[in-house]
Amino acid sequence: MPARHRNIVPGFPHLLHGGDWNPDQWLDRPEVIEQDHQLMSEAGVNALSVGIFAWAALEPEEGRYEFAWLDAILDRLAKDGRKAILATPSGSKPAWMSLKYPEVRRMHNGVREPHHTRHNHCYTAPVYRAKVAAINRALAERYARHPALGAWHLSNEYGGDCQCPLCWDAFRAWLQRRHGSLAELNRAWYTAFWGHTFSAWAEVNALDRTMHAMTLDWRRFVSDQTADFIRAEAAPLRRLTPQIPLTTNFMGTYPGLDYHRLAQELDFISWDAYPDWHPAGGDDLDTAAHTGFNHDLMRGCGGGKPWVLMESTPSSVNWKKLSRPKQPGMHRAASLQAVGHGSEGVLYFQWRKGRGCSEKFHGAVVDHDGRSDHRVFREVAALGATLGRLGAAVGAPVVAQAAVLYDWDVAWAIDEGQMQRNCDKDYIATAMDHHRPLWRRGIAVDVVSQRADLARYRLVVAPMALLLHPGVAERLESFVRAGGVLVATYLTGQVDHNDQCFLGGFPGPLRALFGVRAPEMDTPPDHVVQTLAPTAAGTALGLSGSYPTRHFDELLVAEDAEVLATYAHEWYAGTPAVTRRTVGAGEAWYIGARGDRRLADDVVGGIAARLGLERALDLPLPEGVAAQARGTGADRLVFVENFAGAPRTLALGPGWRDAESGAPLAELALARYDARVLARA
Ligand SMILES: [Zn+2]
Question: Can 359 be counted among the known catalytic residues?
Answer without folding.
Answer: no
